[in-house]
Design brief:
With 478 residues, this protein is mostly helical. It has 2 domains: 337 residues, no CATH class; 87 residues, 3-Layer(aba) Sandwich (Alpha-D-Glucose-1,6-Bisphosphate, Chain A, domain 3). 61% of the residues lie in helices and 4% in strands. It is built from 22 helices and 5 strands. The chain has a 5-stranded mixed beta sheet with strand order 2-1-3-5-4. α4 runs antiparallel to α5. The chain is globular, with a radius of gyration of 24 Å.
Length: 478
């Protein structure tokens, strides 16, 4: 790449970093705050109580997520790689708040993903597709928001893309040398890490299989190091899953993710995933024209590489059907696939418009499609950044300030753990049982956000009021 290309790449990445700082200092009370705050809670407890990776914990000790009482507050989902890095960076470097470090970690990870997307498009498509895909990844509003959330999905996607990139680098050499072994080891490290961060990345083994087949053909089945790669990459995940089954109280119920509501392949499934999410939310309608234009690349010699990503994405969407319909953050994993096809499609739009008119018309058409796509996507995403309940945040800040650090509390908030996690105390986010029974289990305080008159005349007369205002009511239960 020449100097001009490097400068453009650097400037785009710098601007991509800048836009990801939007509302960077806000508390974790924006869109999908319940999942973000659960993730942040594990990091916070690591920082407070030590890095016990085999026993990750959070503040929820209720039976809501697993169906079993969880008095130790175990949180057995993804292996806590992200949480380890989050806590370590916040403690060892400082300079930012704990929440800001959680966001910064994923912002940096997302920029690395952007570079990998750019590199793959540059190698297997063309320069125009590479820059277009990069612009899409960096500036689509959905990608911006979900590049600065406190979730393991962002780092999982980065690890997966790095694993595929280094596997491609490994296969670009004819013989196994010290240098190629480094690429092999790096690919293995990142692929296995992506599986640990979230096993959904298992769906994306197809690009790796395609690259191996492209290199060796059927002789790939005779390569011992490919078998070794396949086995070793899943061993850490197998060990982790074997370990956590000993603690069912800390494992959230997850069977519903597959097809819990029977929506898979129903008309509503296709509407939600391919229209409401991909076309409307992610691509802002107009980006879908680029996806459609990518069909004209069917004769390109390397298009099957990108098709392998598409099949992986479809397999993931179809298998984890209810999860993808229920939660829009589940589509973080398919964003590299989407933007790569946007890049390829934009390249075709430019090519066709240039042939029919001229280069200026081609560039203008691409810019118009991008601008309209970003605008209409922003209309859908802009409220994701907002905190709609400042009273809850104020209540949590006050409770965190005055309650003992080891207090067990009841912090009801419509079943969400956001309130409990902002208070940073262990307890119950719902009235899973009558208050007296929760007191018998150790509940010492109750914090109510945005209390009503009934709360003051009811709970406020039954228990001792520690502090109150129009945004909070803090009670001592025993």
């Amino acid at each position: 790449m020449n100097r001009v290309g490097l400068l453009i790449l650097f400037l785009l990445l710098a601007l991509g970093f800048f836009v990801r700082l939007y509302k960077f200092s806000e508390p974790i009370a924006d869109w999908h705050s319940f999942r973000q705050s659960d993730t942040a809670a594990v990091s916070q407890i690591f920082a407070k109580e030590g890095y016990d990776l085999l026993y990750p914990k959070y503040y929820d000790i209720s039976n809501v997520q697993s169906g079993l009482d969880n008095p130790r507050g175990y949180r057995f989902v993804e292996f806590p790689i992200y949480n380890l890095l989050h806590a370590f960076m916040a403690e060892s470097i400082g300079g930012l708040s704990f929440t800001q470090w959680g966001r910064m970690l994923n912002i940096v990870a997302s920029l690395i993903t952007a570079v990998v997307v750019f590199a793959l498009l540059k190698k297997y498509a063309n320069n125009f597709a590479a820059y277009s895909g990069l612009v899409a990844f960096l500036f689509l509003p959905y990608s911006i928001f979900y590049s600065r959330v406190i979730l393991p999905d962002v780092m999982m996607t980065t690890s997966l893309m790095l694993g595929i990139y280094f596997f491609d680098k490994f296969l670009s050499y004819k013989k196994m040398t010290k240098k190629t072994f480094i690429f092999y080891a790096l690919s293995l490290l990142f692929i296995s890490s992506s599986f640990l961060l979230k096993p959904f990345s298992l769906f994306f083994i197809l690009p790796i299989i395609y690259l191996a087949y492209k290199k060796f053909g059927t002789k790939m089945f005779l390569k011992w190091y490919l078998y070794l790669f396949a086995i070793v990459s899943v061993v850490p995940l197998y060990l982790w899953r074997s370990w956590i089954v000993q603690f069912p109280e800390g494992i959230p119920v997850s069977d519903w993710l597959f097809n819990g509501n029977g929506i898979r392949f129903r008309p509503s499934f296709f509407r939600w995933i391919f229209f409401e999410r991909v076309t409307k939310l992610i691509l802002g309608y107009f980006g879908a024209f680029a996806i459609a234009a990518s069909v004209f690349s069917y004769k390109d010699k390397n298009i099957l590489f990108f098709v392998s990503f598409a099949f992986s994405s479809l397999l993931y969407l179809f298998v984890i059907a209810t999860g993808n319909v229920q939660h829009d953050y589940y589509q973080i994993l398919i964003i590299p696939t989407v933007v790569m096809f946007v890049g390829i499609g934009m390249s075709k739009i430019y090519e066709i418009a240039t042939k029919k008119f001229n280069r200026v018309a081609g560039c203008l058409l691409v810019v118009i499609v991008f601008v309209l796509s970003f605008y209409f996507s922003w209309i859908q995403v802009k409220d994701y950044f907002n905190i709609n309940d400042r009273g809850m945040v104020e209540a949590a800040e006050k409770a965190n300030e005055i309650l003992p650090k080891d207090a067990l509390i009841i912090a009801p908030y419509d079943g969400s753990t956001t309130f409990l996690n902002l208070i940073q105390r262990r307890g119950w986010p719902v009235f899973q049982q009558p208050i007296e029974e929760l007191i018998d289990k150790g509940a010492q305080y109750m914090v109510i956000a945005n209390p009503t008159e009934n709360d003051f005349t009811g709970f406020g007369t039954e228990y001792d009021v520690i502090d109150s205002s129009n945004t909070y009511l803090i009670l001592k239960l025993k």
